[in-house]
Amino acid sequence: MQVKKPKIKNRRGKSKHEQEEIILFLDIRSSSIGGAFVEIFEHRKPKIIYTTRIFKYFDELQNSNSFVGEMLIVLDEILNDLQSSGLKSVIETINHKDINEAFILYASPWYVSQTKDISINKEKSFIFTKTFFEDLIKHESQTVAPNKEVSIVEKDITHVTINGYSVENPFGKKTNSVDLSFFISEMSKKTIKDIENRVKNNFAVKNFVHHTHPLALFSVLRNRFMNTPNFIFLDIGGEITDIGIVSNDMLIKNISVPYGKNYFIRSISQQCKLDSTSTDSIMKMIADEVIDDKCSVNVKKIIENLKKDWLNVVVDALAGHVAFEELPHRVFVTSDPGVANLFLEILKSKDAKELLFVSDNKVVVSLIDRKVLEDLSDYDPQSRTDNFIELATSFVYTNTQ
Fold first, then answer.
1. Which of the two residues, 384 and 141, has the higher pLDDT score?
2. Which domain covers residue 383, as residue numbers?
């Protein structure tokens, strides 16, 4: 993966092992934005020292301009919190001028992406150079979003074979054949500029690194589970569920469906005439199996029907891309807090096994949480945990060592 390694400053009084840099992390999703300060070290895993997250609920689906505008307001609130509470109560030895780098991770719908497979075969051997690859990416990226108003965020090789052999770094190698699998993502230039300007209004950030959730999830899971070359991951946000399919250590498909947690909340609110806060609380109680008998039987029935609807949407989305008998039986899930158990229950259900996996033999569904990522980052004792911030720091750590 092409993740730029943070610059570690030589702070006075610190040994080489202790040298660190404080970096601003942002996680921008479809219904929440998280922010954090993270200590990045030269020779050990990062430490998350402050986190904050704000959730945004929309009563109805927004057009793109309204959505971006509302979420940028949330971003301003996050940055204000980081500058006030974050700097003053946690990091007393530095100020906003000392924050020079920002790592920003995006979930759908902030980007468009595509996976590509290319085979190159020539009679005469040639040197596979980075320039050759860049020209190839430039040509292929035009098919993702051929628009001057967008910028390429990622152009990463996810798997490569040279003369039939898998290699970590293909550049500079002599070959007759190259098989590439790579991931391209693009975002609106205006949106990137708006986000960066807001960060600059609060901190002296000079270096920005932008990445997307699918690439981060794929990379972290592949490195964390090296003996699992085939798996599926689902990132269930407020408005959108992203699905990635990995086969033989290659990210072969990345699919987005416009059904997330807020689909449940809106549907229950409308059918039961409840406000969104009450509906969200009921969903969390049901997800954690602490609902009591006083809960309306009608609400339970509605949620059961919505679970079936969500599963059918996932099934239909996958049906257009891959044969179900080829789907890996190892499934990883990330989800907005409070409702993870609800989606785990759906994916572990008999219906899911019959519809998605043809047979239920050895289907394993796991939540990506602290238990999975604890070897890749630490928390300051005073910091609140945040699985998505932890994913971002783990992504940086595993790709810069």
1. 384
2. 16-110+190-217+372-400
Residues 81 and 201 in one domain: yes
The Cα 215–Cα 78 span in angstroms is: 24
Q: How far is CA 71 from CA 55, 63, 82, 191, in A?
A: 10, 12, 17, 11
The CATH number that applies at residue 241 is 3.30.420.40
Report the C-alpha gap between 353 and 53 in whole angstroms.
Answer: 34
β partners of residue 210: 104
| The pLDDT value given to residue 11 | 43
Q: How confident is the model at residue 12 (pLDDT cuts 50, 70, 90)?
A: very low
| C-alpha atoms less than 13 angstroms from C-alpha of 55 in its C-beta half-sphere | 13
Structure tokens at 197: 């300007």
pTM of the full structure: 0.85
Query: Which CATH number characterizes residue 147's domain?
Result: 3.30.1490.110
Q: Phi/psi zone of residue 303: left (φ > 0), alpha (ψ -120 to 50 degrees), beta?
A: alpha
User: What is the amino acid identity at position 105?
Assistant: L
For the chain, what is the domain count? Answer: 3
Check residue 10 and give its pLDDT. 43
Non-local CB neighbours of 3 within 8 Å, separated by 6+ positions: 209, 211, 395, 396, 399, 400
